[in-house]
Structures are given as structure tokens and as C-alpha cells.
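Project standup — Tuesday

K.O.: blocked on the structure for the chain from last sprint. Re-posting the sequence here as requested.
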Amino acid sequence: MAQKITGTLVQFERLGDRYAVLRIKPLSNSWKHNPGQYTEIGFVEGEKPLNKIYSIASAVRDDGILDFCIQLNDVELLEASKSWVATKTEFALAPAAGNFHVPPYQRPVVLLAGGSGITPLKAILEDRVYNGGKDLASTVLLYGCSDDEEIPFHDELRDLAASRPAQVTVRFFAEKMLAKGSSRAEAGRPMAVIDTYLSPDSDYLMCGPPPFLNATRAHLIQAGIPSEQIHQDRY
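H.V.: unblocked you, prediction finished:
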């Protein structure tokens, strides 16, 4: 059985009241993962271990750094984070697990994310952009958040789309428009535009809270998308 390995903190950035981005670099080249998988991270609060499961929000990269999006609703974890120091704080990483469906690069996909459900879908999008090459088919991400100030990985996702404009579309949606000046999102929810991206040739990958998944799946089924082309990861 594969053993846990150690990873060191690269970055911990709070995005507001809801989310934080955590970046960890495994200290062993033997640790591997595939897009769409998750891992268990071992934190320490005083002498008390905290083990939390998180989806990995990054594709396989040359620098080995792993991205995570953490919801800021865990008091113990927030208390522990006050003492974290980049390059000095270490965590235990369990072997990557999970088998979220990842279509081949040549197949069109629509990625539908709600809140922190962006994590496995960001990894899949990164992988398609980095490795899809000239055969990359249409890749659409529709990402809904509560407000336009707290959108995890906003700039990275925007840059991924800009790097492959002919193949990749990323659209952000927010229920509350709070940002001053130019908005970082469209007002509303992804459901308002999903019909624009309906195709019998596409796979639909979803991750988010149960109400979001249930409503989106029901809409796709009613629109005639076969159930075998709809894939979801619940959290």
C-alpha cells in the first residue's frame, strides 16, 4: 500500500470570508495524481492532527505544486493556519484517489462548477490546455459563485482561456455583484446560459453543492442529453 508523503507549504491566501487557496509542494517525486482526483491532507493544530480530504485543483506540473481551494468554515483549521509559514510548514499527503470521468482531449466538454466545486474541474481544464495540443476540442467552463469578489482561481482560469481562445471559453457568474469598477463576473447563474452549450457530442462534468448538481442534471436530462454523458463529483 502506498504511504503518505510530506509536502511543504508554498502559499496560503485567504480570498475573503468563504475561501482560501492553499498550495503545497510534495517533497517526493514518487507522489502522483491525475486530473479530477483528491487527497487527504494531514494538518496539525497544536498536538492534535487534523485530516481533511480535498480535491486537487491543479494538473500535473513540472514544478510539482498542488493547488487546493479550502472553505473557511472550519474553526480548527483556521486556527492552525495562523502559524503556517511558507517553506517551513509541512503537511502529510495521502496517495491521490478518485476516478472522476475525464474525457479524451478530442471530445468536447462543458465544465459546470458551483463554489469550491471548481477544484477538480480546474485541474481538468488545466490538463486540457497544457496537454491537449492541436487536437483539443471545445472546452467550456461555466462557474457560479455567491458574489463576484470571492471567485477562487479567477485570474488563473481567465489566463487559461486566453491562452487557447479558439478552443477554451470560461464564463464566471455571481448572484451578488459587489466588486467596484469592472465586474469579474456576469450577474446570475450558469443555468441561464447553459442551453447555449447544449450538444449531443459533448460530455458534461459537474462539481458543486447538491442543489446545484441536482438542478443542473435535471435540466440537461430534460434537454435531451443522455445520462451517460453527464458526470458529477459531489462534495
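K.O.: great, moving the ticket to review. The radius of gyration is 18 Å. The chain has a mean pLDDT of 92.
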